[in-house]
Design goal:
- The complex is a heterotrimer of chains A (318), B (238) and C (221).
- Chain A has 2 domains: 154 residues, Periplasmic binding protein-like II (D-Maltodextrin-Binding Protein, domain 2, 3-Layer(aba) Sandwich), CATH 3.40.190.10; 96 residues, Osmoprotection protein (prox), domain 2 (D-Maltodextrin-Binding Protein, domain 2).
- Chain A has 318 residues and is of the alpha/beta class.
- Helices cover 43% and strands 13% of the residues of chain A.
- Chain A has a 5-stranded mixed beta sheet with strand order 7-6-8-5-9. Chain A has a 3-stranded antiparallel beta sheet with strand order 3-10-4.
- In chain A, α7 links the parallel β6 and β7.
- The longest helix of chain B has 32 residues.
- Chain C has 10 helices and no strands.
- The chains are: A alpha/beta (318), B mainly alpha (238), C mainly alpha (221).
- Chains B and C meet through α2, α3, α6, α7 and α8 of B and α3, α4, α5, α7 and α8 of C.
């Protein structure tokens, strides 16, 4: 085994194998160079000059809206890359601040509640002024669209029947029932003012427990349908509300405030033609349209990018 | 037929990759860390063999690192490396290191004293002896470690989906939930499993190529008597 | 590094010590998931491993099954099963058991196979029945290795059970997933610390079990 002849033979074997391994590794790297090059390994470094990074949160409507923004920008000759499914607002806001994301679809009142939980929300205009005042100096919001998609506390049909809740019931009517109910929502709902905290401080609601699900997605829908939770944070544009006969509770104290779809942008990253393009989108997007587009993605299983492109075309924005 | 597998390869646009693109991405995110882990483990293991007192503390430290769940590792790293592939690859490299160091140390130590003495008598210096005698004999143990590290790495990449589209084939799982399309989850699981099996087969092949003195297909265990090698490390798969 | 500050902040916050999201409750859930999964995996892996190890048959089939099981991604399986079957404990148990069976199975097989054949032959020569040979000769000698297989499985389960939180179950992973979405590092680091400590406690339990169960004669080898 250790004779010189043997060992030199085994060395060539090894060199050969090493060469094979290296070639394989190189091929691997080369083959994968189609990988997401927009991912800068250095977080916080700004996107390349002239390229607008459109981000989205981890739910279907956010992806759809990001696609609409991105494609509208492309149509006006802006270079766009996408950074989808980033996570919750708690995460995306940090990425907006440091410039790794330039444009993000937001909801004006929800954003304000994140920036300042105590802010009163009287009108959409006042909300937008307050948001602009509270935003990081590098960020601003553009024109809000009439399309609205709020968080809501929604109960399933069984619970509505048991506690005699109808579409005219309010959150205050839930006070006696709440200690018997499990409420579900995204993990961040647990600590947000527009979440458990506000439900307690504004309506005095204390639930039996909280179950962390997803941001109004299939987990939440399924949990509510199967009565794993009796109440949940469901987006008001959710097509399953009608389908499953869920009851959305009214919010007279405006805890969930206004939630008009509004582009949040990093000031230095977006050229004027991009600002114009996004404002044009906001002008055309209303709640009815958003509901239809959501249904195409969530019920008809169409690809959000295709839905976005088709709508931009029909709205004359492409 | 409007079958279940409709749209099996219909990857949602927000993943920004084709199916093949995701496979390439997955392999890169899984295998580069194993390679990095191996490159780090070789010198570290040699130090542990050279200085025996070093091995217990190294083993202790790696055991503790290994006990940290990968997801927590990712989340803490986000602050330093952002929501990038690197954030997924660093913990995987650490886990690979954790599997490979004991595998290499045990492998190298299993070389019989008389073999080492023979090599020394033939005038082999320590470096040459290590590279041409100890390491080749340790190859089965090292490759057993590599198989475990690779399987675990390929499985763990999927968790990157939780930190914003960084999970390659795992992103299909998030998409399956988001769009309520179970076929994408099936695609993810099946593709990931096939990749793991193929990589494992390649490593077995590599062992056969690298250890021509061993009978083909033999597991790394002599039948009876003789020096018993430690069984394949089964540790560290999550 | 301010990780230690996060750890101390997490554990000194009294709100983290009671209620359905308190540390005792989450820890209990985590231990429950882990013990159940380990028990199920052992119920599959130990008998099959002992039997195949004793007869020496089926080693290749076993290696194949172990490789295949190892190739299945735990997280992927979890998400897939939840999408197909809905919530519950079962979707979490299936991936955890699949994760834990290979180390138990393969190590048990190897452990019994690597028992010195001479005492086995001697026992057989003395007219011992095969079942007695397995349980009175092979098992005691193989026990340290079998325990190490169970230990690997247990550690993997403890660490992997964190992913249950992604599909809205409890356990210590809750802190990690919630912390990710709430941007709350205190929770993430606190949860990770608890999991790591639980894993180390598991190691200690197996060490103690080894001291108690392994015959001194075998231990001294």
């Amino acid at each position: 085994m250790t004779s010189t002849a043997k060992s030199s033979w085994s060395r060539t074997r090894h060199t050969g194998a090493a060469a094979v391994a290296l070639t394989a590794a190189a091929a691997l790297l080369a083959g994968c160079s189609s990988g997401d090059t927009s991912d800068n390994p250095l977080a916080g470094e700004k996107a390349q000059d002239g390229t607008v990074v459109v981000g989205s949160n981890n739910f279907a409507e956010s992806t759809l809206l990001a696609d609409i923004y991105g494609e509208a920008l492309k149509a006006k000759g802006v270079k766009v890359t996408y950074k989808h499914n980033i996570g919750s607002r708690e995460t995306t806001y940090g990425l907006m601040k440091n410039g790794s994301v330039t444009v993000l679809p937001e909801y004006n009142g929800s954003l304000l509640a994140y920036l300042d939980p105590k802010a009163e929300q009287k009108s959409a205009e006042a909300v937008n002024e307050a948001v602009k005042a509270k935003l990081d100096k590098k960020l601003t919001i553009l024109q809000s669209s009439p399309a609205e998609d709020k968080d809501s506390v929604t109960v399933n049909a069984q619970t509505a029947k048991k506690y005699k809740l109808t579409s005219s019931s309010t959150l205050a009517d839930l006070k006696d029932a709440a200690p018997d109910l499990v409420i579900g929502g995204s993990p961040e709902f647990q600590t947000r003012h527009q979440g458990l905290e506000g439900l307690k401080s504004v309506y005095g609601l204390e639930f039996k427990s909280f179950k962390a699900l997803d941001a109004g997605g299939p987990l939440t829908q399924a949990a509510l349908t199967r009565n794993t939770v009796q109440a949940a944070d469901i987006f008001t544009t959710d097509p399953t509300i009608v389908k499953e006969k869920f009851v959305v509770l009214k919010d007279p104290e405006n805890l969930f405030g206004f939630a008009n779809v509004t582009p949040l942008v990093h000031k230095s990253g977006l050229p004027q033609k991009g600002v114009d393009a996004l404002n044009a989108v906001s002008a055309k997007l209303d709640t009815k349209t958003l509901l239809e587009l959501d249904a195409q993605v969530q019920l008809e299983k169409k690809d959000p990018l295709d839905v976005a492109k088709a709508w931009l075309k029909s709205a004359g924005l492409d | 037929m409007n079958g279940f597998l409709d749209g099996f390869f219909d990857i949602p646009s927000d993943l920004q990759h084709s199916w093949l693109g995701l496979i390439g991405l997955h392999l890169r995110e899984a295998l580069l860390p194993v390679l990095a882990g191996l490159l780090l483990a070789l010198p570290l293991a040699q130090l542990c063999v050279r200085f025996r007192w070093l091995y217990p503390p190294v083993l202790g430290a790696t055991t503790i690192l290994y006990a940290v769940p990968s997801l927590a590792f990712f989340v803490v790293l986000i602050d330093y490396t952002g929501q990038t592939e690197l954030t997924v690859m660093i913990p995987l490299a650490v886990y690979s290191l954790v599997v490979l160091v004991p595998a290499i140390v045990d492998g190298v130590r299993s070389v019989p004293q008389e073999t080492l003495a023979a090599a020394t008598a033939m005038g082999f210096g320590p470096v040459r002896r290590y590279l041409q005698v100890q390491l080749p004999i340790a190859v089965p143990a090292i490759l057993a470690g590599l198989r475990v590290a690779t399987a675990s790495s390929i499985s763990l990449v999927s968790l990157g989906a939780l930190i914003g589209n960084q999970g390659a084939l795992g992103n299909l799982l998030a998409a399956a939930q988001k769009y309520d399309r179970p076929e994408l989850a099936v695609n993810s699981v099946v593709t990931t499993a096939v990749l793991a099996i193929l990589c494992d087969a390649l490593l077995v092949l590599l062992r056969v190529v690298l250890t021509p003195w061993m009978p083909n297909g033999a597991r790394s265990r002599p039948k009876t008597g003789g020096r018993r090698q430690r069984p394949v490390p089964q540790d560290v798969i999550r | 590094m301010n990780v230690l500050n996060f750890v101390s902040a997490f554990f000194s916050d009294s709100a983290h010590w009671h209620g359905y999201d308190g540390i005792p409750q989450r820890l209990l859930e985590h231990v429950q998931y882990s013990l159940l999964a380990l028990a199920l995996a052992a119920a599959i892996g130990l008998p099959v491993g002992l039997l195949t190890g004793h007869t020496g048959r089926g080693g290749n089939a076993l290696a194949f099954i172990a490789t295949a099981a190892r190739a299945l991604p735990s997280f992927g399986l979890l998400v897939l099963i939840v999408i197909m079957m809905g919530f519950g404990l079962l979707p979490v148990m299936i991936p955890l058991v699949i994760l834990a069976v290979p180390p138990i199975l393969v190590t048990t097989y190897e452990a019994v196979r690597s028992v010195d054949p001479s005492p086995v032959d001697a026992a057989r020569g003395m007219g011992m029945r095969e079942s007695r040979i397995l349980f009175q000769v092979e098992l005691p000698v193989a026990l340290p290795l079998i325990l190490s297989g169970l230990r690997s499985a247990a550690i993997q389960i403890v660490s992997t059970a964190t992913i249950a939180a992604y599909v809205s179950l409890g356990g210590l992973g809750r802190y990690i997933v919630d912390g990710l979405y709430q941007r709350d590092y205190e929770k993430v680091v606190g949860g990770a610390t608890l999991v790591a400590v639980l894993a180390l406690v598991t190691l200690a339990v197996f060490w103690a079990a080894g001291r108690l169960a392994v015959s001194p004669g075998v231990r001294r080898r």
